[in-house]
């Protein structure tokens, strides 16, 4: 009964999405007020029905309803409650439902927090979002229905993949999807601007907080995924340049370019067409990511060819969305215009350079991700593009971008002077060079790469501080506190996000330069030394978890004379799928992580010896710490007062216009 | 005229920058392509010498042997037609098992494939597509006789992963 209810709710949501995707758009084109007014209630109704469907699926999971195929494939009666709930998005159908839920949540939010927008704009934005929703809801209903029944019902479920039975899995997909799907709002605003031919600073001010918010969620989502891979896959890697990771990283790079381009559009009215194009690309890459992950092409191009229903649907959707929006762009972009002029040396051109670098970086990831698929699809052989490619490409592309992060905020709009910037930043530069030369020595070994990475990180921090100080000097105020309070939240948001990048760069540099790893055979009682840390294998026990059994090692770690406590790595066997899984033990510190994982038992005679991998990872947590700072910077910028002030003043003036507009169309 | 000249200079600089970036990307790309070969292809000397590549197939039953140092493992990868001996130093992935599919990356050294990476995907039923493909190809060419292509020299060191 409940699953059927969910199914009906989805169908009703599709009908509402159809209404939302057509009538308001037609209304906006013809100036029909009553048609435009349909957008909001349709969007909100759609959200309610999708939420009901999502609730129904969750209920089926919680009550172990194994007559639902999707539940039977992704859950088990022995699965703890929190993972049964996370299991809702543990597979293909459910993660699509989560995608659609997020989309309707964003749409709902736009419909609620948009009272200050002109009716035709909001009708177009919600209309475009409705069309996207039509695509995904019909994809789900026609090819991947989570409510399909299994007759006869299974006795018990096949269980959730053990790798996904983890706290990281509970929150990683919702965060990531919030970001992914959030770019659809930026996309909808861009399409609305093309349709209406109006794109000005006000438009940028409307769409900017939504884009920044989506970007912040995506940052958090990617960081969570990386952190999850680090501690859950058991081998201590934090980024693999795997196609699934790249799928989320490409929209992030494009989104980062977009939020900077939007800043120029809002402040200076420039980069208009470019901003629209970036918004289209960011969303297109989100869709492409969904296609890559959800169509099965990554598992095997041939599996995709033999069961192409899902893949062809998404591919067609992809072609319609990207092709349609680019065609619209080609047709209407000239009406949007290019915007204000600027000199070669100006903040605009620094931001433009940064934009181009980010776009090229996204392009290189795209090449490395898609090329093997193309070659395989054409039957020209099998190949893979390894992490070294991405690393060699990223360092030279990102280094100038990171350098410009220090220069850009210091430069004036429209026309800046290089000598002036150089004078103002000379101390920041001196401090970062000195630090970059000396700091690696404290790690015991000086390498050019470590020094270079630290130079960039220190440069970002030092120049950010310099910019803040010079800005305070220009602010009139009695006390330093008053001056600090006078700066806007979006300014602090930018500083915080930039410092987050610096923290991230420190983490990556230190891990890449100074990480150490050893694979050894250890029997109980033996110990191994790595980077000054001594790991002693004290005991091996069998332990029983709620739905698994495990061999658990006990390690004592000492550094010099001080004891750092115990570590308990496990090798688990899950009861249902009988998969072995490595559960690493991590001792987290501010400047380093210690990482111990159990390989496998060796030697038939001496049963207690294991192959053990021990790792020392300096500053590894700074990688995710930096991402959290970036996301917090984004959130801070969204909370800026000017978005709300603008909302309030608009809300007071707009209804009057609407009333006359409505009367005119009615009359 | 002056702003126009400046604009042209800017465009030229931009295009030059993009060209440099593209050259960089493409050369890095070319150097880091890792091709996949089946054990049959390796036996026919089709695989490159001195360059990393991937080999995939099934881990031959009974072939996994741990070396005295405890961390180096030797095993055979077969596509049912030909077999190649692989040496790997380090911790094997959780799903590495005899009789299951595997893909390894490394180089040929004295007839032995010294792997720097062993990949087995995290799904019990999942055969790495390359491995499945290698076996299908071998069966299609109907080379049923299993022959060993390599004599086993003892490698002193293995990969660096």
User: What series of H and E elements makes up the topology of chain B?
Assistant: HEHEEEEEEHE
Biggest interchain interface, per-side counts: A-B, 49 and 38 residues
Number of strand elements of chain B:
8
Number of DSSP helical runs of chain B: 3
Overall pLDDT of chain A, averaged? 89
The number of helical elements of chain A comes to 21
What helical percentage do the residues of chain B reach?
Answer: 25-40%
Low-confidence regions of chain A: 650-667
> Distance between termini of chain B?
59 Å
What does this protein look like?
The complex is a heterodimer of chains A (667) and B (161). With 667 residues, chain A is α+β, with helices and mostly antiparallel strands. In chain A, strand 10 and strand 11 form a beta hairpin. Chain A starts with a helix and ends with a helix. In chain A, 52% of the residues are buried. Chain B is α/β, with parallel strands linked by helices and 161 residues long. Chain B is 29% helix and 30% strand. Chain B has a 5-stranded mixed β-barrel with strand order 2-4-5-7-6. The N and C termini of chain B lie far apart (59 Å). Chains A and B meet through helix 14, strand 1, helix 15, strand 2 and strand 8 of A and helix 1, strand 1 and helix 3 of B.
Topology (elements, then pairings):
The complex is a heterodimer of chains A (667) and B (161).
Chain A: H1 2-30, H2 33-36, H3 39-62, H4 69-74, H5 81-86, H6 92-112, H7 119-143, H8 167-196, H9 201-232, H10 243-268, H11 272-294, H12 301-306, H13 309-336, H14 347-377, E1 383-385, H15 387-407, H16 418-442, H17 448-474, H18 480-486, H19 489-514, E2 516-522, E3 527-530, E4 533-544, E5 548-559, E6 562-567, E7 570-574, E8 580-583, E9 585-588, E10 592-601, E11 610-618, H20 621-638, H21 641-666
Antiparallel strand pairs in A: 2-11, 3-4, 4-5, 5-6, 5-7, 7-8, 9-10, 10-11
Helix pairs in contact in A: 1-3, 1-7, 3-6, 6-7, 6-8, 7-8, 7-13, 8-9, 8-11, 8-13, 9-10, 9-20, 10-11, 10-14, 11-13, 14-15, 15-17, 16-17, 17-19, 19-20
Chain B: H1 2-31, E1 33-37, H2 39-43, E2 53-59, E3 65-66, E4 72-78, E5 82-89, E6 101-109, E7 112-119, H3 129-140, E8 147-148
Parallel strand pairs in B: 1-2, 5-7, 5-8
Antiparallel strand pairs in B: 2-4, 2-6, 3-4, 4-5, 6-7
């Amino acid at each position: 009964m409940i699953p059927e209810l969910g199914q009906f709710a989805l169908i009703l949501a599709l009908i509402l999405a159809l209404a939302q995707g057509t009538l308001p758009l037609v209304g906006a084109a013809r100036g029909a007020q009553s048609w435009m007014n349909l957008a909001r209630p349709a969007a909100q109704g759609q959200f309610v029905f999708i939420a009901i469907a999502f609730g129904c699926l969750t209920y089926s999971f919680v009550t172990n309803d194994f007559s639902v195929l999707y539940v039977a494939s992704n859950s088990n009666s022995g699965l703890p409650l929190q993972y049964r709930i996370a299991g809702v998005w543990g597979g293909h159908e459910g993660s699509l439902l989560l995608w659609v839920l997020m989309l309707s949540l964003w749409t709902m939010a736009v419909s609620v927090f948009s009272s200050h927008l002109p009716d035709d704009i909001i009708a177009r934005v919600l209309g475009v979002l409705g069309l996207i929703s039509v695509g995904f809801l019909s994809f789900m209903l026609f090819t991947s229905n989570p409510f399909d029944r299994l007759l006869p019902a299974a006795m018990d479920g096949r269980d959730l993949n053990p790798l996904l039975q983890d706290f990281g899995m509970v929150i990683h997909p919702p965060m990531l999807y919030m970001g992914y799907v959030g770019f659809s709002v930026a996309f909808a605003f861009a399409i609305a601007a093309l349709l209406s031919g109006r794109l000005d600073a006000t438009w940028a001010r409307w769409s900017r907080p939504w884009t920044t918010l989506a970007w912040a969620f995506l940052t958090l989502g990617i960081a969570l995924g990386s952190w999850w891979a680090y501690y859950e896959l058991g081998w201590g890697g934090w980024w693999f340049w795997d196609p699934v990771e790249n799928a989320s990283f490409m929209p992030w790079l494009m989104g980062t370019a977009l939020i900077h381009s939007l800043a120029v559009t809002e402040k200076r009215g420039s980069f208009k067409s470019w901003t629209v194009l970036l918004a289209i690309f960011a969303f297109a890459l989100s869709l492409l990511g969904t296609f890559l992950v959800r169509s099965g092409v990554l598992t095997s191009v041939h599996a995709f060819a033999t069961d192409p229903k899902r893949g062809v649907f998404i591919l067609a959707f992809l072609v319609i969305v990207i092709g349609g929006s680019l065609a619209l762009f080609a047709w209407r972009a000239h009406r949007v215009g290019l915007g204000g002029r600027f000199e070669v040396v100006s903040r605009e051109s620094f931001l433009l350079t940064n934009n181009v670098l980010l776009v090229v970086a996204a392009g290189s990831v795209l090449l490395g991700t898609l090329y093997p698929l193309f070659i395989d699809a054409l039957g020209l052989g099998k190949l893979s593009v390894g992490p070294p490619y991405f690393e060699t490409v990223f360092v030279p592309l990102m280094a100038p971008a990171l350098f410009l992060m220090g220069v850009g905020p210091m430069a004036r709009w429209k026309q800046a002077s290089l000598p002036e910037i150089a004078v103002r930043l000379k101390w920041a530069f001196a401090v970062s060079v000195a630090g970059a030369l000396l700091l690696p020595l404290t790690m015991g070994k000086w390498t050019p790469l470590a020094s270079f990475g630290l130079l960039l990180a220190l440069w970002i921090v030092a120049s950010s501080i310099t910019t803040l100080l010079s800005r305070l000097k220009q602010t009139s105020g009695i006390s330093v506190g008053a001056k600090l309070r006078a700066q806007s939240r979006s300014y602090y948001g930018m500083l915080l996000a930039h410092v987050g990048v610096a923290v991230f760069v420190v983490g990556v540099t230190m891990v890449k330069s100074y990480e150490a790893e050893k694979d050894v055979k250890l029997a109980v009682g033996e110990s191994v030394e790595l980077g000054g840390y001594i790991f002693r294998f004290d005991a091996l026990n069998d332990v029983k978890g709620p739905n698994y059994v495990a061999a658990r090692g006990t390690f004592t770690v000492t550094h010099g004379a001080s004891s750092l406590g115990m570590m308990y790595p496990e090798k688990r066997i899950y009861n249902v799928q009988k998969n072995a899984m490595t559960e690493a033990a991590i001792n987290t510190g501010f400047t380093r992580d210690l990482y111990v994982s159990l390989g496998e038992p060796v030697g038939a005679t001496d049963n207690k010896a294991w192959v053990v991998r021990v790792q020392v990872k300096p500053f590894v947590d700074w990688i995710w710490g930096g991402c959290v700072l970036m996301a917090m910077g984004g959130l801070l910028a969204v909370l800026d007062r000017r978005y709300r002030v603008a909302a309030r003043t608009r809300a007071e003036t707009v209804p009057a216009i609407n009333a006359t507009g409505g009367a005119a169309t009615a009359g | 005229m002056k702003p126009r000249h400046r604009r042209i200079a800017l465009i030229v600089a931009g295009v030059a920058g993009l060209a440099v970036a593209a050259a960089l990307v493409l050369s890095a790309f070319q150097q880091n392509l890792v091709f996949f070969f089946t054990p049959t292809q390796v036996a026919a000397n089709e695989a490159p010498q001195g360059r990393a590549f991937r080999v995939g197939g099934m881990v031959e039953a009974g072939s996994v042997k741990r070396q005295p140092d405890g961390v180096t493992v030797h095993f055979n990868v077969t596509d049912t037609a030909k077999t190649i001996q692989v040496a790997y130093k380090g911790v094997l992935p959780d799903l590495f098992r005899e009789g299951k599919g595997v893909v390894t990356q490394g180089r040929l050294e004295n007839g032995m494939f010294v792997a720097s990476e062993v990949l087995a995907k995290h799904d019990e039923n999942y055969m790495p597509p390359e491995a499945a493909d290698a076996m299908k190809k071998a069966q299609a060419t109907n080379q049923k006789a299993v022959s060993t292509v390599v004599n086993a020299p003892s490698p002193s060191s293995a990969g660096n992963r």
